[in-house]
Amino acid sequence: MVVQAQKKIAVVGLGYVGLPLAVEFGRKRNVVGFDISERRIKELSLGNDSTLEVTAEDLMAAELLSFASNKQAIADCEIYIVTVPTPIDDAKRPDLRPLVKASETVGSVLKRGDIVVYESTVYPGATEEVCVPVLEAASGLKFNEDFFCGYSPERINPGDKERRLPNITKITSGSTPEVAEEIDQLYSEIIVAGTHKAGSIRVAEAAKVIENTQRDLNIALMNELSLIFQRMGIDTLEVLEAAGTKWNFLPFRPGLVGGHCIGVDPYYLTHKAQEVGYHPEVILAGRRINDKMPTHVADETIKLMLKKGKPVLGQKVLVLGLAFKENCPDLRNSKVCDLISALKVYHVDVDVYDPWIDVDEARHEYGLECLGSEPESGQYAAIVLAVGHRQFIEYGINRIRSFGQSNAVVYDVKGALPLNGIDGRL
C-alpha cells in the first residue's frame, strides 16, 4: 500500500515526544498538533517550547503545522499519532488513564479508513487489548474493517542534541500487513536513519519496553556494585575505569534512575508478566536496588556530616539539580525528589537550585520551593551534586564548595567532580 501524500496527520499530545514528531511531519504534510493544555498550545503558537526540544526556527520551518486544543480541529485528519504519557501510579502499576482519554478523543472523531498509531510506551498487547476497544466504543466502528492501528515506539532522548528524531532508527508495525507497510512508509518520510518493520504490534510493544528494562538492570548492577565497594572502601568509578579497559565491558555507571522511561517501563513489563502468571525476579530486583539509591545518598551525606563533627538538626543542605537528567528541564519522575524527602527525614532544611527547570512547575508537581537564583555563599553544612548540568561542571569544585560553610560536606552523585575535592560519591 502506498502512502497517500494528501493524508492529514494529527499528533495527539505535544510533550517531549509529540512535538518533535509534529515538527518533522509538519515540514512535509499538513499536521495538526493537538494538546488538551491551552497553555501549551498558546506557547507553541507563539514559537516557544518550554521543553527546549525544538527551537523557534524549527517551529517556523514546519510550515504545514498548526496547533489546537479543540478536538474538532483534528476531525478531518486521517492518521492519528498518539504520544501521551504512560506513567505509573503510587503502587507502581501502569496508569493508562492518559492513553484511554486520548483514545476516547480520537475515537470520537474517527472515520472509516482512518489509522491510529500509538507511540506511548505500553506493555505487549495494550494497543489491541486496551486502546482498540476504546476506539471502537467511541466511534462505533469495527477494528481492521473500518479503521486500523499501528504501534511505533518513541525513542526520544530529552536534552540530547546529537541523537534527534530523524537520525534514530524507528520501529514500526501495523494491524494488517498493508497498514504496516503504509505506516512504515509514512515514518520513512522523516526518519533518515531508516525504519525497522516489526512482525506485529505486540512485537513492537515488547521491543520498546525491554530497551529501557535492559538499561535499568545494567544501572542496577552498577548501583549494587557501588553499595558493595563503598563498604570495602574502594572507589566505584575507579574500578569501572579500570574494568572499562576491556573491549567488551559495558560503560554503565551508578546513579539515580528517574525520568519517564527507565524508571517506569520495567513496571509495565512486570505488570503484564504477572498477569500471564509469571513472577519476574531479576527485573524487580533491579528496580528495588535503583529505587533505594536516593535514600542511600541521603544516608551517606548525613553520615559524612556526623563524621566531620557537624550537627544535623536544623542544618541547611543544598541540592544542586532537580531535573531527572543533565542539561534538560524535564522533571518527570525525578529521583532527586526522593533524595530531598530522604534528607528531610533527618530534619535538615533543604534548598534546591536548578538553572534548567521552571520553578513554578516544580512547585506544582512536587510542592518544592526551589531557589530562583544562585545560592548565597557560606550557608550550607552539606552540598549534594545531584544532576550533572553543564553549569555545575563549569563551577568546579572550588565554586561549589564556596556555597558551603567551612569544612562542608560535598557529595557527588554524578561522579563529575575531582575525587580529591569531595567527601563522597556513588
What brief labels describe this structure?
single chain, 426 residues, alpha/beta, 6-stranded parallel beta sheet, 5-stranded parallel beta sheet, 14 helices, 13 strands
Envelope shape: globular
Largest sheet: 6 strands, parallel
Share of helix among residues?
A: 25-40%
Order of helices and strands: EHEHHEEHEHEEHEHHHHHEHEHEHEE
Strand content: 5-15%
| Alpha-beta content class | alpha/beta
- Look at the structure and give the mean pLDDT: 95
Radius of gyration: 23 Å
**What is the total tally of β strands?**
13
- Give the strand order of the largest sheet, numbering strands 1, 2, ... along the chain: 3-2-1-4-5-6
Count of DSSP-assigned helices:
14
Structure characterization notes:
With 426 residues, the protein is of the alpha/beta class. The protein has 14 helices and 13 strands. It has a six-stranded parallel sheet, with helices on both faces. Strand 9 (316-320), helix 12 (336-344) and strand 10 (349-353) form a beta-alpha-beta unit. It is globular, with a radius of gyration of 23 Å. 45% of the residues are buried.
Task: Provide the fold topology.
Blueprint: E1 9-12, H1 18-26, E2 31-34, H2 38-45, H3 56-61, E3 65-68, E4 79-82, H4 97-109, E5 115-118, H5 126-139, E6 148-151, E7 170-172, H6 177-188, E8 195-197, H7 201-232, H8 236-243, H9 265-275, H10 282-291, H11 293-307, E9 316-320, H12 336-344, E10 349-353, H13 359-366, E11 380-385, H14 390-402, E12 404-412, E13 424-425
Parallel strand pairs: 1-2, 1-4, 2-3, 4-5, 5-6, 7-8, 9-10, 9-11, 11-12, 12-13
Helix pairs in contact: 4-5, 7-9, 7-10, 11-12
